[in-house]
Structures are given as structure tokens and as C-alpha cells.
Design a protein that fits this description.
The structure holds 2 protein chains of 2 kinds. By secondary structure, chain A is α/β, with parallel strands linked by helices. Chain A has 2 domains: 7-42 and 285-382, Aspartate Aminotransferase, domain 1; 60-282, Aspartate Aminotransferase, domain 2 (3-Layer(aba) Sandwich), CATH 3.40.640. Chain A contains 13 helices and 12 strands. In chain A, helix 6 links the parallel strand 3 and strand 4. Chain A is globular and about 60 Å long. The relative contact order of chain A is 0.17. Chain B has helices spanning 2-11, 17-24, 28-40, 77-85, 111-122, and strands at residues 61-69, 90-95, 102-108, 128-135, 141-142, 145-146. By secondary structure, chain B is an alpha+beta fold. Helix content of chain B is 32%, strand content 21%. The two termini of chain B are 35 Å apart. Classes of the chains: A alpha/beta, B alpha+beta. Chains A and B meet through helix 2 and helix 11 of A and helix 2 of B. The structure holds pyridoxal-5'-phosphate. Residues 36, 97-99, 123, 169, 173, 201, 203, 232, 234, 240, 245 of chain A line the site of pyridoxal-5'-phosphate (PLP).
Chain lengths: 388, 160
């Protein structure tokens, strides 16, 4: 029989920490601080709207780009929150989560051999999606001493004449790092100087704990025409299972993306789109309440690690902290495996998100205080034993 | 800061004060002082526990009673309320707007006990014009907490 499989996909290695995940799966009693999704329920008014839309029989495809009413609301939300100005009819596409947006943008933009700069540690989909789109991923290893922010020197050193896209994964999963206005300014200069495009994954934008709030790279003068802006409802509105996101970009890019989306997906889930109208229009306060609670938990974890004398920079975004475990002389994966086996606590090795995650572990605070406390007590025990 | 402390203890009055201090980025001593001050100012009036009696297999009957009254000379609503709320059977008394004056929540061990309270104690009060007793059949949610089921985390153990 002939090989049924495509060469490119078979050559992409499955996530390196599969083994670790398999052990977790066999320990149902373990306490986990390992998830990448909110613990909050989707606000009831959003769920209620979904039920109502089903009652009214709104169960058909929407237009390929998505519900017009929703795109108009999103356009106003982006203006209100991030000072972004996108035309809902020509510069926006509703997608199946931010995930689809990332994939389709790369497929619409890359030619074989084009290089994509991927600051790491970062979310796991940029690299394989780049490869599947025929591009060449080039990692930029971010440093803990810079609080895992992207520095202009690091960017400039990675640029070649093949570089086409810079991925900007901030606020960051797994580090919790953010890029503030002053951090973005020199990056913007380089992007323009080298004529790059930016794919900015701002899915955690609403979960930013700096005083001044999240700043989008797309809001800088001259950047809108070079930016593909990814966002969605999963994290900000606690709607992971609804599979709804959106992309904003210049019309020429959106047109080609819409083609792929039309043939591969047809349209984002209709029920989710109706519910999302309520989410984007009426839930600012719900989101603010979740943000405030995340922020309290963030401080709690930071203070716990401070008391334990474990090195941990202060992250200002998403719902992760990324403490250093380098002092224990083990790899991240070894640390996590032992923590799991000896104390039944699951956290994720930093290396799951790129080689530069070595020496750190990702701890999620999308959990109740009760759960965080129980897990942190065990982590403290573990660390005390390691230190002897 | 007070508002944050209150919003946490309103949901969990047994919260560990050291944990709370770490969450709010302050010292435990500060929280202790604030709590004491708010107890003295009677902002914090007590720390009761929310119990689902249905599950405790203890007989309990509760009722919400709508009461219409005539405030008497030299005796405003507050005085009438006092006559009502001093009975230990009474859980809560609210002065309300609308077609009656007080909503009185009472609790007893049996239907008989509650009915007796209304006919023997509440109705005969001079200022009480009429009462309407509504027995509670099932409590779904109280103090912001859903009584029916305990929340379970249905997420995968780890996800990236
Ligand atoms: C940084 C980042 N981007 C994108 C996604 C994908 O989210 P979704 O497809 O649910 O919108 C995730 C999910 O974990 C993420 O962490």
C-alpha cells in the first residue's frame, strides 16, 4: 500500500511533552495548576442569549465573514478599549477561535521559504502553522532577565532578507509577559525599517494588570497596514468551548483569508456568534470582575513564591506565572514529573513552549484560591525537600 | 481596601487572613485591624454559615410572610418592625415598597409551628392589618450560592 500521509505533517514532531501529559492522564486525583483556560463560567447572559437564539431557530450558516451585527459591535469594542479603527465590513473576519485566525493568516501570507519570527516561549501553534503554510519558523529566544519581553536587539539580530512576518505573542502564554507602550516603540521602528508584517496574538489583551492597561501594536501610527490582529472570546469572556475568535487586518489580506475560510470552514459557529453579540456589547463589567479576581490570585502566587525565596519575575498579563526552577539543577520536565509523582501537583514544563522555556515552569491561576492554596502548600513542601 | 475585604468575606467568612493579605498585597495585621474596626462600626454584623438543611436531614420549614400594618401614632414603621424582629423565630424583616409593608422571613421545625407563630403572635399585634404566608418549597440559591449542586471542574487536567 502507498503511504497515505503528507510528508510535511508527518515531519512535524508532536508536542515534546506528550510523555508528561500521559502521566498526568493516569493521575486523576492530582491537583492541577496546568490548564490554559478560564475557570469562570461564561457569563449567564451570554449563555441565555445562545439559548434564545436556538429557540428562535437561528441555526443556519451566517455569511462567510460572520454576522454583520457582531462585527459592528466588535469594531466598537476595539475602538473603546484599544483605540483601534477597523471597518467591520471589509477588515474583519469571524473565525473558529483565535486558532483558526493564526492558521489562516499564515496560509494567506506565506510563500515557500518565507521566514516567520516567533518569540519563545510562546503558544504552541505558531510554529506548526508556519510550517504547514510552507514558511520557515525562526525562534527568538526571550530572556528571563528581560522579563520575557522582546528587545529590539533580539529582533534585529533575527531578521534576514527572507523575514516576512513577526509574531507578537503578548500578553504571553506561558510567561504572562506583556509589552508596554515603551517596549513596543522600538519594535515598531524596526518593523517599518525592515518592511515586515506583524501577526499580533492579543487573545489575552483584556487580562492585563498594568495600571495603564493593554496597548495594541496595531494602534501605533503606520502599523495598521502592517498588522494582522488576532483576538477572540475564549480567554476574556471565558468562552473556550464556543470556538469563536476574529481577525482584523488590511482589506487585501482579509479578502484572501476569507477565501480560505470560506472553503475550509464556511463560517464560525452561528450560535456562538449570536451569543457573542451580548458578550461584546454587555459584558465589560463581567470581564472587569474576572480580571480583578485573576489579579488577586496573581498577587497571591507571587507572594507565595517570594516567601519561598523562589525566583519569579512579576508577570502583568494572561493567567500564568512562570517561576524559575533553575536552582534545583533539573530540567523543567524532570521537575514537573517529580512534582507530579511525589506531590500529585500538575504544572507544565516551560519547554512545552520552546527551548527557551527551559528552567521555568508554567503555573496557571485559572483556579479558585482554595485550589491554589492546596497546590502551593504541596509545591512548598516539595521545594523544601529538594533544598534539604 | 474595605470594599475588597468585604467582598471576599461576604462569600467566604472563613478565608485565611494571611491568604487574603497576600491577594490584596497588604499585611495580615492591617486586615485584622480593618475587620475589628468594621465589627465595631457594625458594618460587619456577624459571620453565619449557609446551610443546605434539606441535605442535613433536619426538619426545617421556612416561610416568607407579607405583612400589612398601620403605623400607629408616635410609632413609625421602625417600632412595629421591632415588635416583629424580636421574636427569635424571625430570621429577617424587610420594610419594602409595593402593596404591603414588611416581608418577614421565619423558620420553624414544622408547618404547625410556623402557622402557630403567625396566628398566635404576628397577626394579633395591634398594628398588623393582614398577613399572607408563603411557605418555601425549595431553596435554589441563597446569598449568591446555588444550593442545588456543587460546582465541579470539568476542564481537562492540563492544556497548553
Ligand atoms: C496565546 C494563545 N493564542 C491563541 C490561543 C487559541 O485560543 P482560541 O482558539 O480558543 O481562541 C490560545 C489558547 O490557549 C493561546 O494561549
Amino acid at each position: 500500500m502507498r503511504n497515505p500521509l503528507n510528508k510535511t505533517i508527518t515531519e512535524i514532531k508532536p508536542s515534546g511533552i506528550r510523555k508528561f501529559f500521559d502521566i498526568v492522564a493516569e493521575m486523576p486525583e492530582a491537583i492541577s495548576l496546568g490548564v490554559g483556560e478560564p475557570d469562570f463560567d461564561t457569563p449567564w447572559k451570554v449563555r441565555d442569549e445562545a439559548i434564545y437564539s436556538l429557540e428562535r431557530g437561528r441555526t443556519f450558516y451566517t455569511s462567510n465573514s460572520g454576522l454583520k451585527e457582531l462585527r459592528i459591535e466588535i469594531s466598537e469594542f476595539l475602538k473603546r478599549h484599544y483605540d483601534l479603527d477597523y471597518d467591520p465590513l471589509t477588515e474583519m473576519l469571524m473565525t473558529v477561535g483565535g486558532s483558526e485566525g493564526i492558521d489562516v493568516a499564515l496560509r494567506a501570507m506565506l510563500d515557500p521559504g518565507d521566514e516567520v519570527l516567533i518569540p519563545q516561549p510562546s503558544y504552541v501553534s505558531y510554529e506548526p502553522c508556519t510550517i504547514l503554510a510552507g514558511g520557515v519558523p525562526v525562534a527568538i529566544n526571550l530572556k528571563e532577565e528581560n522579563e520575557f519581553r522582546l528587545k529590539p536587539e533580539e529582533l534585529e539580530a533575527a531578521i534576514t532578507d527572507k523575514t516576512k512576518i513577526l509574531i507578537m505573542p503578548f500578553p504571553n502564554n506561558p510567561t504572562g509577559a506583556v509589552m508596554e507602550k515603551a517596549d513596543l516603540e522600538p519594535i515598531v521602528e524596526l518593523v517599518k525599517k525592515y518592511d515586515l508584517f506583524v501577526l499580533t496574538d492579543e487573545i489575552y489583551g483584556e487580562l492585563t494588570y498594568t495600571g495603564s492597561g493593554h496597548v495594541s501594536i496595531a494602534s501605533f501610527p503606520g502599523m495598521k497596514e502592517r498588522t494582522i490582529y488576532i483576538n477572540g472570546f475564549s480567554k476574556s469572556h471565558a468562552m473556550t468551548g464556543w470556538r469563536l475568535g476574529y481577525v482584523c487586518a488590511p482589506q487585501v489580506i482579509i479578502q484572501q483569508m476569507t477565501k480560505i475560510h470560506q472553503f475550509a470552514i464556511m463560517c464560525a459557529p452561528t450560535t456562538s456568534q449570536y451569543a457573542a453579540v451580548t458578550a461584546i456589547r454587555d459584558c465589560d463589567e463581567d470581564v472587569a470582575n474576572m480580571r480583578e479576581e485573576y489579579n488577586d490570585r496573581r498577587r497571591y502566587l507571587l507572594n507565595r513564591f517570594k516567601k519561598m525565596n523562589v525566583k519569579c519575575f512579576e508577570p502583568y498579563g494572561a493567567f500564568y506565572i512562570f517561576p524559575s526552577i533553575a536552582e534545583f539543577g533539573m530540567s523543567s520536565e524532570e521537575f514537573c514529573t517529580r512534582l507530579l509523582k511525589e506531590k500529585e501537583v500538575a504544572v507544565v514544563p516551560g519547554t512545552a513552549f520552546g527551548d527557551s522555556g527551559e528552567g521555568n515552569v508554567r503555573i496557571s491561576y485559572a483556579y479558585s484560591l482554595e485550589n491554589l492554596k492546596k497546590a502551593m502548600d504541596r509545591i512548598e513542601e516539595f521545594i523544601n525537600e529538594l533544598r534539604g | 481596601m474595605r470594599e475588597k475585604i468585604l467582598s471576599y468575606i461576604e462569600h467566604n467568612s472563613r478565608i485565611d487572613l494571611e491568604d487574603l493579605a497576600m491577594m490584596l498585597g497588604t499585611e495580615q495585621a492591617m486586615i485584622v485591624n480593618e475587620l475589628e474596626a468594621m465589627e465595631n462600626e457594625h458594618i460587619i454584623c456577624g459571620y453565619p454559615t449557609l446551610i443546605n438543611w434539606d441535605k442535613a436531614s433536619v426538619e426545617k420549614v421556612s416561610a416568607l410572610i407579607e405583612v400589612r400594618v398601620t403605623p400607629q401614632r408616635g410609632m413609625g414603621f421602625d417600632k412595629v418592625a421591632e415588635r416583629i424582629y424580636n421574636y427569635p423565630e424571625v430570621n429577617a424583616v424587610y420594610l419594602i415598597s409595593g402593596s404591603y409593608d414588611f416581608m418577614v422571613s421565619i423558620e420553624g421545625h414544622t408547618l404547625r409551628e410556623v402557622a402557630d407563630f403567625v396566628s398566635a403572635k404576628l397577626s394579633p399585634l395591634d398594628s398588623v392589618l393582614s398577613t399572607q404566608t408563603n411557605f418555601v418549597l425549595k431553596k435554589y440559591k441563597d446569598h449568591g450560592i446555588i444550593m442545588a449542586e456543587k460546582h465541579v471542574d470539568e476542564r481537562e487536567k492540563v492544556s497548553l
